[in-house]
Amino acid sequence: MSHPHNKSIINMNASSLISIIEESKITYVRENLSLHLHRSQIKLLKEVRKHEKPHHKRIRVKRYEGAEKDDLFNLHLDLYLKRYEKLVKKGLIEIDENPENGLPYDCCLTEKGKEILDEIDRLEMEWEKIVHIDDNNLEVLRRIAIDSFGISYRHKKNQNFIF
Predict the structure, then answer these.
(1) Whole-structure pTM value
(2) Burial of 87 from C-beta contacts in 10 A (0-12 / 13-18 / 19+)
(3) d(Cα 112, Cα 95) in Å, to the nearest integer?
(4) Torsion sign (Cα): 88, 104, 73, 107
(5) Number of neighbouring beta carbons within 10 Å of residue 81
(6) pLDDT in tens, 22-67
(7) CA-based diameter of the chain, in Å?
(8) Which range (3-12, 131-140, 153-162) has the least confidence?
C-alpha cells in the first residue's frame, strides 16, 4: 500500500515501529469486535483470563498474604475494582468480593466474556494474516519477546503486584 507516511516509517526506530504495529492490531480488533470495548478493557479482559489460571491465582494469594494492608493498598484495591466494574456491566466478568482463597476479590469470566475473548483471538489471527506475519518473522518476534519479557517480569516481581 502506498501511503505518504511510508517514507517516514522506513526511517523509524524499533520502538516506534512496535507502537505502530500494536496500534494497528488493536484498531483492527476494536473495529471488528461485536462489542464496543476500549483498548484498556480488552487488556483487562485478557488479564482476567490469565489470572484465572491456578498458578497465577496461587502467586496472587501468596503476594496478598505478605502485603501491607495500608491506605495505599486500599486505594489501589478500589481503583482496580472500579476498572473491573465496567466489564461486569457489560456481562463479561463476575467479581467475588469475598472469595474463599483469601484474596480481597477475585474475578472470573462469564460465558459471554469467554466468547468475546475467543472473538478477540480470532480477530488477532486475522490481523496477523492481513499484515503478512509468517513463520520467519514470527520467529524473530518470539526472540524479541523472550529478550523483552525479563524486564517487565522483574519489575512486577519487585513491586509485588497483587492485583
Answers:
(1) 0.85
(2) buried
(3) 14
(4) negative
(5) 16
(6) 999 999 999 999 999 999 999 999 999 998 998 988 888 887 777 7
(7) 57
(8) 153-162
Angle at 98 between CA 116 and CA 73, to 5 degrees: 90
Grid coordinates given for 52: 484465572
User: Of all residues in the chain, what percent are helix, strand and coil, respectively (each to 5)?
Assistant: 70, 5, 25
Q: Per this entry, what is the length of the chain?
A: 163
Q: What pLDDT digit, counting tens, does each position of 77-136 carry? A: 888 889 999 999 999 999 998 888 878 888 999 999 999 999 999 999 999 999 999 999
Residue 7 grid cell: 517514507
Grid cell digits, residue 130: 492481513
How many CB atoms sit inside 10 A of residue 45's CB? 22
Instruction: Outline where 52-134 has alpha helix (H).
Output: 54-66, 71-89, 111-130
Q: Is 94 helix (H, G, I), strand (E, B) or coil?
A: strand
